[in-house]
Specification:
The protein has 231 residues and is of the alpha/beta class. The protein has helices at 2-5, 9-20, 128-139, 145-159, 161-199, 204-211, 215-230; strands spanning 24-28, 48-55, 58-65, 75-82, 93-97, 112-118. The chain has a six-stranded mixed β-sheet with strand order 1-2-3-4-6-5.
Length: 231
């Protein structure tokens, strides 16, 4: 749902502005072959961001590419929104740039950055708007103008029968694939246990009891093991 909601530029623009502390002139959706598909299944969104900054010399236009592809000298940011502190340092956000492993003082200066925002630590953010965003991601409580806009968009999509059905189908398929993966993993563990018990000469009845495989499965496994041993 994230990619679907944030494909709306009126939602993405203020979010990126506050997160990166820049002023955006406008957003442009990348060319089709470089872009992402925006539907209920996607959790990412890509924009070419044209930022406007004003200084004593006048207006300066800078562009940011929120994907990893290098294009000329554009600054590029990859933004990660994480529920947990995957780095374990207790910080609400982490900003990375490419540096030499041998000497961290040497930067690559490729204008490529990766920012991680730990939204469950929303209380630690100092910018009130960013804090409200992070609080919304963590609690789903919309208590700012920006997060209420997001919440309204989510409600709109959930009320749309076509989009809601597609999203629910995606969630169901995702749950089923996870369950199938767990079941397959458990089955592999049981077969490995049965194979080890067969190698130790344990009786079939005992192997069935402890491995929870059927007698037919154990016999097939024994037959396969015997065939392998005779080759």
């Amino acid at each position: 749902m994230f990619g679907l909601v944030f494909s709306n530029k009126h939602i993405a623009k203020p979010f990126i502005e506050h997160l990166l502390n820049i002023k955006i002139d406008h957003l442009e959706t990348p060319i089709p072959e470089a872009g992402l598909s925006y539907d209920a299944e996607h959790k990412g969104v890509r924009y070419d961001v044209f930022a406007r900054e004003t200084n004593e010399n006048g207006e300066t236009i800078r562009s940011f590419d929120l994907e990893m592809q290098m294009v000329d000298t554009k600054e590029q940011y990859v933004i990660f929104l994480c529920p947990m502190d995957i780095f374990g340092r207790g910080l609400p956000c982490y900003h990375f740039e490419n540096r030499a492993k041998e000497d961290p003082s040497i930067t690559l200066d490729d204008l490529s950055y990766k920012n991680f925002y730990i939204f469950k630590k929303y209380e630690m953010f100092t910018d009130p708007v960013v804090k409200a965003y992070m609080k919304y991601f963590a609690t789903r409580n919309a208590d700012s103008r920006e997060t209420k806009t997001i919440n309204d968009q989510v409600s709109h999509y959930k009320a749309d029968t076509l989009i809601r059905n597609k999203y629910m189908t995606y969630e169901y398929d995702l749950h089923e694939s996870k369950e199938e993966g767990r079941a397959e993993g458990r089955s592999e563990e049981r077969r490995a246990m049965a194979a080890a018990m067969l190698a130790d000469g344990e009786p079939v009845e005992r192997i069935v009891k402890y491995s929870r495989l059927s007698e037919e499965e154990v016999l097939k496994l024994r037959e396969s093991s015997m065939e392998s041993a005779t080759k």
